[in-house]
Amino acid sequence: MKASDKGDIKKPLILIADDDDWCLDVLVKMLDKLGYDVCSVHDGRKAIETYKSQKNKIDLVILDMQMPYDGEKTYKKLREINKKVKIILISGYTKDYKLAPLLEGGNCSFLTKPFTMNSLKMNVSDMFK
Description:
- By secondary structure, this protein is an alpha/beta fold.
- It is built from five helices and five strands, in the order E-H-E-H-E-H-E-H-E-H.
- A five-stranded parallel sheet has the order 2-1-3-4-5, with helices on both faces.
- Helix 2 (44-54) runs parallel beside helix 3 (71-81).
C-alpha cells in the first residue's frame, strides 16, 4: 500500500481543554466532522499533562480561557514546554482578558464563543499554514 493512500494519511491531532461538557462535546464533533483527530480534557492542568506526554503527536491546542487552571496559565505553561506550540484561545468573555500579549507570541489566535463551523474551520486551517 502506498503512503499516499487515503487510509495512510495522518490526520492532525487537536487537544481541546474546556470544562463545559456541552461545549467540549460540540467542539469535538465539529472538529471530527472537519477531519481532525481530537483529544479532550476538562481543565488546564490535564491539558498540560496530556501535552507533555503527547507533544510529538499533538498538532494544535484549543484552550478555553475560563476553566479550572485557566487558559492563560495553561497557555504560559505550554509555551514553557514548547515555544512554538500552536494554540487557539476560546472564550465567551472577551472583555475579561488581556489577549494581546498572548496573541503576540505567534502561533496563536482567538475565537469568541459561540462560533460557527465555518469560523472554526477557517481558524484551525490558518494555524496549519
